[in-house]
Amino acid sequence: MRRLFWLAMGVTIGALVVRKLSAAADKITPKGIAGSIAEGLRDLADAIGDFGADIRAAAAEREAELRSGTGLDAPLPTGDEVQLPGRRHGAHAADL
User: CA–CA separation, 47 vs 35, rounded Å?
Assistant: First the structure.
């Protein structure tokens, strides 16, 4: 019974070692290297896309803060409410 256990253990360990070595050998072939590079480029593209989305969201948030702080989103005054420099309030061009 003891020998059967060790035989099964040896077969299992041998199979795992062969699988690991085969996977390592596949990684160093040109096809395996190309696959690794392609996967790395996909990961890089995803990271760049996430970074760009974060930048756009932060820029939109900051623009909203600046607009509310400076009053750029306030409604424009009508013609009667506009006061030009150097003119008295309510004065007409004929009065000057």
Answer: 18
Query: Does some domain include residue 52?
Result: yes
Cα 7 from Cα 1, distance rounded (Å): 10
Quickly tell me which residue has 């420099």 as its tokens: 85
Do the Cβ atoms of 26 and 32 come closer than 8 Å? yes
79 is a domain residue: no
Domain of residue 43 covers 27-69
User: Is residue 21's pLDDT more than 60?
Assistant: yes
Query: Is the pTM of the predicted complex or chain greater than 0.85?
Result: no
Helix extents (H) in the chain = 2-27, 30-70
